[in-house]
Amino acid sequence: MVTDVLTIDLGEGQTFFAGPENRYLAGVAATLCDCLGEPADTLLSDSLGDALLLYGPPLSGKTHFARGLATRWQAAKSDAKVLFLAASDYAREFASACQADAVDMFSERVRSCDMFVLDAIDALAEKPAAQQHLCRTLDALQRRNSLIVITARVLPGQLQDFETGLVSRLSAALAVSVALPSVETRQHLASLLAERYDVPLGEDGCRALATRLPAGVLPIENAIHSIAAQQPTASVEALIESILSEQTDSDELPMKSIAAATSRLTGIAVADMKSPSRRTSHVRARGLAMLAARRLTSLSLSAVGKYFGRRDHTTVMHACDKTEHLIQTDRPLPSMHEALVAVF
């Protein structure tokens, strides 16, 4: 079992577990966090380059890591302006600003940051106007020596339906891979979490969860949370086997993780999210999970709808649009959405 897994403190009780496969990422975090007292231009030019681009597959934790860096930066520089924005939100807000003749106001908001984090830039595909605006935004931020962090699933040259100018601009960033944790890292993580929650998994149990659950950290965390909650009513071995026996449909694995995380945040059972229920709390939790699936996975709308009670893809689209609107107007939802996305 790997034992040299580094625990990166991301602030506010959040951590990132970096095994050997993410050792360089741990070094980047150390550089950023150790140099918080220095000007951003010195930090970037001497250590990181033009900007920082974190790329990797869904569930690798790049959003969680990027948000954590923003949290640490804001805590160390309380007077600094730090903006974390999903690329889908960037495109939507830019489009709204165009319609309202308020582009200057939007530009000032995103270009006056001391640290700007743009998450899941892949969402800007086929949005040339937003891409052109972002390219100018990145230039403006560089001129004011702001710290820029961007996340993507792939390297800039592999982005589809992106403007050549923006791809070239992104290629100047320091690209750091965020890899899915290896089986050995996941086994070590299972052992750490089992100890934390007083769940007697044993080496065999840790190995089973690490090898048979889907890739990523969240499935293991969800499994151990579930075992800890049910432990008084069944043996650990039986609970492990029950959890593992559910891992049958590979298309549903990302949705299982997202639905479980949504359930923990909202207090709404996954079964209620899948049910025909139209209760407001169930509808909002379901919409939150659907929106997260749309932003965090490559699953089709039909696949997401199938998971949530065989709903039609148009129903998923409507739920996502409604949830995006509610995030702008409903006080509890923004923090829930941010917390859900941060997990991944």
Distance between the termini: 24 Å
Strand adjacency order, main sheet: 4-5-6-3-7
- Strand portion: 5-15%
Low-confidence stretches: 37-49
Radius of gyration, CA atoms, in whole angstroms: 21 Å
Task: Give the rounded overall mean pLDDT.
Answer: 82
List keywords for this structure.
alpha/beta, 17 helices, two-stranded antiparallel sheet, 59% helix, 5-stranded parallel β-sheet, 344 residues
Describe the structure.
The chain is an alpha/beta fold. The protein has 17 helices and seven strands. The protein has helices at residues 23-34, 40-48, 62-76, 87-99, 103-111, 128-143, 164-171, 183-196, 202-212, 218-230, 236-245, 253-266, 270-274, 280-296, 301-307, 313-329, 332-343, and strands at residues 6-11, 14-18, 52-55, 82-86, 115-119, 147-152, 174-177. The strands form two sheets. The chain has a five-stranded parallel beta sheet, with helices on both faces. It has a two-stranded antiparallel ribbon with strand order 1-2. A hairpin with a 2-residue loop joins strand 1 and strand 2 (14-18). It is globular, with a radius of gyration of 21 Å. It starts with 5 loop residues before the first strand and ends with a helix. Residues 37-49 have low confidence and may be disordered.
